[in-house]
Amino acid sequence: QQPVQSPQAVILREGEDAVINCSSSKALYSVHWYRQKHGEAPVFLMILLKGGEQKGHEKISASFNEKKQQSSLYLTASQLSYSGTYFCGTTSLPMYSGGGADGLTFGKGTHLIIQP
Amino acid sequence: GAGVSQSPRYKVAKRGQDVALRCDPISGHVSLFWYQQALGQGPEFLTYFQNEAQLDKSGLPSDRFFAERPEGSVSTLKIQRTQQEDSAVYLCASSLAVDDEQYFGPGTRLTVT
Questions:
Q1: Nearest-CB residue to A103 (from B41, B48, B107)
Q2: What is the pLDDT of residues A20-74, one digit of tens each?
Q3: CA angle at residue A13 from A108 to A88, to 5 degrees?
Q4: Distance of residue A95 Cα from the nearest chain B Cα, in angstroms
Q5: Which end of chain B has the lower number of beta carbons within 10 A, N or C?
Q6: Is B72 exposed, middle or buried (0-12, 13-18, 19+ CB in 10 A)?
Q7: Residues of chain B contacting residue A107, judged by C-beta atoms under 8 Å apart
Q8: Considering only CA atoms, which of A3, A67, A8 is closest in space to residue A31?
Q9: CB A93 within 8 A of CB A29
């Protein structure tokens, strides 16, 4: 089932902070965060795994609440380059565990606009 | 280094035509994924390869869709007898290992007229 992202859209002034949320009705094994600009490929930001392992860009932070099946992406001191659509992609099992789809299940995205 | 590349970047097909979309993953990446992205939506999983083995094709929408990766590197997604609902951006992604971050290509925008 598709994770739900909130908010759907947010407009910020440069330098302001934002939080983007991703929640699932299923138990999660991993959450992946991507940013996509119009007409471009999604760009990897962060991966969070069950058990606490995280990997991602230094300037990006995120949390993963396994009990609540939620993840949040924190954007601080936003820059104009942060504009784009943010997607979370989730897995419920380790890939190639034989339990189902091995790809990411993405949310509908959060549109972020940063104004000067 | 070189990222994931896809060709063609744009493809216009008449309804009923067959199309083939190519993906060149990052060298050494074991896992390869295909996704379909409709306008204004997130990518939707189609199929997954580990080396040359297609381990999951649960997301392919119909038997008109076929994917292969015969030598464990380049992959081709083939759509037979295209329909208008096949119009979308087809994204390819690769990762070094299972459950690792995925690196996406620029996509192929398919328009079926």
A1: B48
A2: 999 999 888 899 999 999 989 999 999 998 888 888 877 789 999 989 999 999 9
A3: 20
A4: 6
A5: N
A6: middle
A7: 42
A8: A3
A9: yes
